[in-house]
Amino acid sequence: MQVLITGASGLLGLNLALEAAKQHTVYGVVNHHPLHTDAFGVIQADLLAPGGLQRLLDEIQPDWVIHCAALANLDDCEADPHLAQRLNAALPAELAKLVAKGGARLLTISTDAVFDGLKGDYAEEDTPNPLSVYARTKLDGERAVMAANPHALVARVNLFGWSASGKRSLAEFFFNNLSAGKRVMGFTDVFFCPLLVNDLAHLLLTMLEKSLHGLYHVVSREATSKYDFGLAVARRFGLDESLIAPTPLAQASLRAARSANLTLRTDKLAAALGQPLPSWREGLERFYQLYREGYPSYLKQLITQS
């Protein structure tokens, strides 16, 4: 398959491109963060430029398009809601229309944050109620994609893993700070279902291979608090867990509103795949093994080579 992946320098996009390139011909689109790799084709492009999406599709003629590009920093979205709307809603909407017209399959990435976190254990049919600009624009993107292209896939995700910058996931946050002997907060009342990015990449590709369509939750089958997740990272890497201060969310000075309970059900996808989704504990063990194998250093060199 010819696979086009947007946001290929990001945490998900890069790991997904490397995973997909093992079996497919992959082209990764980057903008401000160039990559240097022979593992897949790299295309530098501004997706918001007039006609840019159509030119990409005409040039690559992909069978699958996986849209990972987004404005994902919550504070950046609060500071520039117009840009957030363009990147997180208008861009995937345009892409969905063009892909539908050309006959390729589209998978677009959304977020668990579309829910307000008041009850947790959310299924795909539960009514979203986003609290932040980021979450609102991602929900707008979900709805626009499905309206323009009913055969598309929308995956709501929460992920951790190693990134090229080393600063893109919560696991990296705990690892970096604890390794440096720095104290950090761990939210005791924020619950989520983080999935290792490498596991997520494999699941997304399997969903396309099985020609699934519609909305799916693609997260860990088990939930944890952010505090307990930090403790687990510390223990696996032999770091000082006492540096993690158990903290309620209300004590943190955060610009964007966060949802407290983002536990999601994964029954729908598990039934479609015929097996349960991986757990975050399994993912954390693989996260550790990847570190032992030098994977973080390998990713870093992809953005630092001259």
Description of the molecule:
- The chain has eleven helices and 13 strands.
- It has a single domain (about 1-165, about 195-225, about 265-305), classed as Rossmann fold, CATH 3.40.50.
- By secondary structure, it is α/β, with parallel strands linked by helices.
- Helix 6 crosses helix 8 and helix 8 packs parallel to helix 10.
- Helix 1 links the parallel strand 1 and strand 2 (about 25-30).
Keywords summarizing the entry:
11 helices; alpha/beta; Rossmann fold; 13 strands
Describe how the helices and strands are arranged.
Layout: E1 2-6, H1 11-20, E2 25-30, E3 41-44, H2 52-60, E4 64-67, H3 74-79, H4 81-102, E5 105-111, H5 133-148, E6 153-157, E7 159-160, H6 170-179, E8 184-187, E9 191-192, E10 195-196, H7 197-209, E11 214-218, E12 224-225, H8 226-237, E13 244-247, H9 267-273, H10 280-292, H11 295-304
Parallel strand pairs: 1-2, 1-4, 2-3, 4-5, 5-6, 6-11, 7-10, 8-13
Antiparallel strand pairs: 9-12
Q: Report the CATH superfamily.
A: NAD(P)-binding Rossmann-like Domain
**What CATH architecture label applies?**
3-Layer(aba) Sandwich
CATH topology: Rossmann fold
Which range does the strand content fall in? 15-25%
How helix-rich are the residues, as a percent range?
Answer: 40-55%
Number of contiguous helices: 11
Secondary-structure content class: alpha/beta
- Element string (H = helix, E = strand): EHEEHEHHEHEEHEEEHEEHEHHH
Q: Give the end-to-end Cα distance, rounded to a whole number of Å.
A: 30 Å
Largest sheet: 7 strands, parallel
